[in-house]
Structures are given as structure tokens and as C-alpha cells.
Amino acid sequence: MANSNSNIVINKVEKDSNKRDVLMVRSLALLISIVLPILGVLHQMRGDDADPLIFRFILSGCGLTIVIGSYVSEWFRKNIIELAIGVLYLLIAWISYMVYVNNLNFQYVIGTIVVIFGSSPMLRTIKQLVPFMLYCCLCVICATFFAEEPQTDPKLLSLTIVTLIGTLYFIFSSRIKMQIKLKQNEELLRNVFNESVDSLLLVNAKDNKTLDCNNQTNKMFESKDSDEIVDHKITELIKERLSKEEIEDINEAIKKDGKWEGEMECVTKAGKVFWGNFAIKSLKLADGYEWLVRISDVTEKKLAEQEIKNQNRKITASINYAQRIQDAILPDLTQLREAFPDSFVFYKPRDVVSGDFPWFMQKGDEYYVAAVDCTGHGVPGAMMSMVGHFQLDNIVNLEVAVHPNEILRELHFGVNASLKQEDNPELSDGMDLGFCKINTKKMQVEYAGAHRPMLHLKNGELINIKGDRLPIGGIQYSSRGKEMIFTNHVIKMGAGDSIFIFTDGLPDQIGGDFGKRFMQRRVEDIILNNSDKSMLELSIEFDRAFTRWIGKKKQIDDVLLMGIRF
Questions:
Q1: What is the DSSP string of 309-334?
Q2: Structure pTM?
Q3: Max Cα separation, the chain?
Q4: Which residues, 6 or more positions from 228, have their beta carbon under 8 angstroms from its beta carbon?
Q5: pLDDT tier, 6 (very low <50, low <70, confident <90, very high otherwise)
Q6: CATH of 199-297 among 1.10.8.60, 3.30.450.20, 3.40.50.880, 3.40.50.2300
Q7: I want to staple 144 with a disulfide (CB 3.0 to 4.6 A). Which of 32, 154, 478, 489 is the partner?
């Protein structure tokens, strides 16, 4: 980008330089064509020196030819410096002749030196400088040595002028060498500029007209040449006309930050539409501020983004539909609140659909409650949750098993069969859960857990009833000959007692000031510190604690916590 910036500026500077050359040479030629004849006539009237007017009129005619030609001919304008050097040769020859015929008259000697000094802006290369300086030395030496009645010592005068010319040569040659080096750098930069894969334009900051552009701009916008773009407003390259407010916003951003970037639809000269990324940078040049505009064709990127958006929209629609299916299939938790008015379910899926799910069923005086954590989360977890939900429904409804430990065992074999894990041992998916069977008449809870505990709050004391270190699903235990036997815990409940079952999403959540896990200890502390509050209030306390703990971090898993007070 930096090289391209330099090249556009160089192009403009070069064009401006040619214009300045034309104006300079035109002014000098006009001055010569007017002043030389007038001075000649004055000399003739005074008669104090020999001054053939014919030479003055020839030089005047050459000057007028350059002036007129610079207006009417492009060739004259392009070769203005070479033409000026040609006139300089004639001028040196004429003034050397005047030195000769006027016997080294001092005013013509001074004129010779002035002409040599004045030739400096015209001499751009060593090839121009060397012959011109040798020519000047030859003319001066001839004029001084062949003068018939010299007014000054010819040898001393020649030596002085030749020494001066030699000094000027070294000065001019040093400048020319620097100019040649700069020219080479300019050519290198220009080549890089024209090879740029992006469109580059220099734009007037005041009227938004394009001052210059590179070759890629013509290709990108399908223009025949730069004339179709230069001197036209850059907004003509944009498909939709920018509103006054949009233009003001862009100008304000450039004034504030010195740059602006955005994407807009562009239109080529052939009517083809494509997406362009505009990067505008403000440049301070000698004659004010101008904009360097880089336009990159990002059509493929925009199409890819649009395709991704469409795919995301479809995926989101599918996930939302899956959520509706999951919500419809999973138990209605209002039944749990009807059975146990002082209860709560704190449920926060990580994604739209969840791998954790609460499960509830009533059969007479007995209520079955489970907090289930399936392998994975999101869509994979939700699919496993369907397997777990239907398996539990079948086991309890058909009374395949009665006690929680038996139900977990049947659930394990059911998951094995559903996923065909005996034939596909690499499929170790399954679930962890805490399962309760509650008899309200007997005020009794039977509990069994697969990697999950149950907390029992009784008389201000919190009892941790651990589950078995056995999974639901997979064959990693049975393949080693270990029998899947879960422990059945029977607990008598008293009035005001509470039970809590939960998945690992809450204890494992990373957060806090040091990025640590929430831990089961904090779950227990919240229960103990708020034991006098209702279950609804306790649910609010868990929500607050979880929100504070997670802060700006991401939720790493589904969260499920269920509480029931007797």
C-alpha cells in the first residue's frame, strides 16, 4: 500500500512537473523573443558597438516558434526541454560572436555567464550537460583568442570563464546525478504501482474528482482508458448514490482519523456490478489535501459471507425447530410444582437446545424425579436427551424396574441397545444422572445416582449422598467383567426437609476473579446460607450467584439444578 501511495503521488507530480516546464520555457522564450530585438534596436540607435540585428531576429523567431508550438502541438509540449536546449546552443553561439566582434566587451562576457547559469534548469542529464559545457568552453575560447582589439587580457578572461564553467559543470552534474537516481526510483515505484492488484486512485478532496488512476482501475471498471475515470467524480463508480449524510460521515471520519474504510457496490463502465472495499487515506501535498483511494474487489468474499449467513439462518431455524420438539417432548414442569409447591428448577442450557434435561413422572402416590446430564451439549446432547427421555418413560411406565437403582441399571442397558454399543464399542456416549423416587404418604425418598450426588437438607444440616461411580451407557465397565450394580439409598423425610439434585454444569463452571471452578462447595454454601428462604427465593439466589460468577466468561456446559421441600 505504501508503494502504491508513492506511485500515484509521483504520477501526479510528474504531470505537474511537465506543466511547469512548459510554462517556464514558454515564459523564457517569450522574454527572449521580445527583449533581444528591442535591445538590438537600442544598440543600433546608440551605435556604440557592433550588433548585427539579423541574429537577434533569428533567435527571436526561434523563441516565438517555441511559444506558439507549445500551445498548438503536443509534440512541442512533450519535447519542450530539448527544444529549449537547442535555442541555448544558438544563444551561446550568438553571444560568443558578440564577445568576439565587440573585442571582449564586458557586458557580453557577463551575458555569457548569465546564459550558462540560466541553462541549469534545462540540463537534465549528463549527456546533455557534457557537450553543452564543452561547447560553451570552445565558444568562449574562440571568442576571446580571436578578438582583434581585446579590451581585457584574453588569456586571463578565457581562464576565468573556463574555470567558472568547470565549477558549474561539477555543480550541475551532481544535481543531475541525484535527479537520475530519483528518476530511477520513480520508475521502480511506478512499475510497482501499475502492477498493483487493487484499483488505486488519487482524488481531489474538495470536489471528489479523480486526478489519476493506475492500470488496474481501468481493468476493474472496464474503461477504455483513464480519460473515462480521470476528471470524473469517484461517486460515479458507486452503484447507489450516496446520501448527503453518508458523504458527510465519510468526510468527517477522514478529517478526524485521516482515513476511512467501508464496502460498497460498484458498477463498471459496461454496467457490471461488483462489491468493492474502499480504503481512503488523506494525503497532504504541496497544493492541499487529496485522497488516495484503494478499491479491492471483494465480490467473492461477500458472496461467501452471504452463503454463510444463509447457511447459519437455515441451521438456526433447524435448531429452533429442534428446541420446539425438545420442549414438547420433555415433561411439563408445572406438574412438578403442582405436586411439590415449594420446589424449583434452575435450568440454563448453554445453547438453544440442551443435553441436560429435567425428568418427572407421577404414578399414584409416587413421584419420579431426575436431573439428567447427557454426553455433549447443543444438538448432539439434545439427541442423546431424547434417547434418555424415552428410555426412562418406558422403564417407569412399563414397570420394568421399581427401585431407582434398578431403573438406572435398565436405563444403562437401554442406552447400550439404542446406540448399538455392543457392536460399536467406540460409541461411549451416555449420561450421568441423579434419580429420585418420592413417596409422599410414607414421606420417603429412594435415591440412586450415576456419578451425581443428592444433597439432603435436614434441621440446618446438609447431608451429601453420593452416587455410584458408574456411567449410564458405554461398555467400558461391562467389557472388563464389572457388573453394573447401583446403590439404592432410602431416606426418611421430615416436614421442612429439602433435597437437591443437579448436573455438573454448575460446579464445573469457570469464573470468579481467578478463573476457577464454581465447585460443589459453593452450591452447598448457598443452600445453607439461604435455608430459611422459599425454594423460589433460593432459585433466584442461585441465578444471581451464577451470573456474578460467570461474569464476562462463556458458559461452558448446560446447567440444571432441582430442589424440592417437603
A1: HHHHHHHHHHHHHHHHHHHHHS--TH
A2: 0.58
A3: 148
A4: 218, 221, 269
A5: very low
A6: 3.30.450.20
A7: 154
